[in-house]
Amino acid sequence: MTFSSISDLWNKWNIRGSVLLSLLLQVFLILFAPCRRKIANRSIVVLLWLAYLMADSVAIYGIGLISNQQGNSCARVAEVNGALQAFWASFLLLHLGGPDTITAFSLEDSSLWGRHLLNLIFQVGVAIYLFVRIFPSDKSLIIPTMLVFFAGVIKNAERTLALNLSSLPRLKESMAHRHNLRNDARLKLEEEFKALGHGYPDEEEAKYAESIVVEHAYLFFQIFKVFVGDLMFNREERIMSRQYFHKVSAMNALRIISVELQFIYEVLHTKTLSIRTKWSYIFRFVAFIDVAVAFVLFNHLKKHGIPKLDVEITYSLLFGGMALDVIALFMLVFSDWTVGGIKCYNTRSSKLDSFLHKLISATDDLRKPQFTKHEVEPNANAMYAVLDTPFIFRRWSESISACNLLSEFLKESPRKMYKHN
Fold this sequence. Notes:
Blueprint: H1 3-32, H2 42-71, H3 82-96, H4 107-111, H5 113-134, H6 142-166, H7 168-176, H8 179-196, H9 210-224, H10 235-247, H11 250-269, H12 272-275, H13 278-299, H14 308-333, H15 336-345, H16 351-362, H17 364-367, E1 371-375, E2 383-387, H18 405-409
Antiparallel strand pairs: 1-2
Helix pairs in contact: 1-2, 1-3, 1-14, 2-3, 2-5, 3-5, 3-6, 3-14, 5-6, 6-13, 8-9, 8-10, 9-11, 9-15, 13-14
């Protein structure tokens, strides 16, 4: 392959490849980022980390490619239509907002929320520069481009706000001023515990319904999350929690703790804090409508001067943008946060509340932990039980790994209890 053919291939696919790869990374992250807390596999974690790093880099690189091509007056004729380049740049800005399932891979990422805000301002400025360069000569896609651009600004504002709210100083500040919520959670837990009786201290079976576990974990999370901010709870909360975990069975206690850990993980590493508000629902609806209207306008546009490949890529971006929003909506509606909020704060005084409670209770059998028994060794009489919950309903990796510096240096894997087929 000659240098000229490689150059032609690069000129044809550099922008196209960037926007397609950016879309694929968004799809991968929204679907597989929750696997980080469900699968205890180092390879999966490394793969997610690479995808997390690449998602922002590819989007920024794609915007830079388009900007460079528009700014270089001596460059050869662009392989992609100018108006379409601006349209794709707005999608890259939308992708820069990231999926709901991961905003930070480590706590340090959240503390650098100011850097993401500065980067956002710069990328918005680059996008506006592209619009100023392209649209005076070609206004065919100006309205769809601006609609997707506004949706991208909303998504990026959500991510920046999520990073800001999940940074440890901001978490500590918010927790120090929310005593009423903690008191309400403590009183509600005391009422729930009296209604449930004394629990099952001598049994190892999972007696509580899954919706009850989520409700109690949600209430305990309101109390115990102060530890994330390096704070302490008061004497009444300490006594109540001791009494509660003293009376419930070990299995139910572990189930509640596992859901609590999931809540903490999502507060620190996802958009949870920024998307579960009334204003967020409104802005998210506006963003979805913007992309949907852009799809309708592009569908009715005369595309005689646009290559078929570019039309297909644009439809992929539009369908992908709407599909990602629909997936995020389903994850939001059917999350444990929604179940906990309904169980804790909705009284069955209305038909809607009663219906929601019945709907949640109907899913208890699907979401409850499941076990399988296995022999310690082949042909041995000793048996042990292993958690075998279906992957889609699994909340954590269902194993606890122990690591130390020596084992890390020797590259030894932590010991686990495996299933024997």
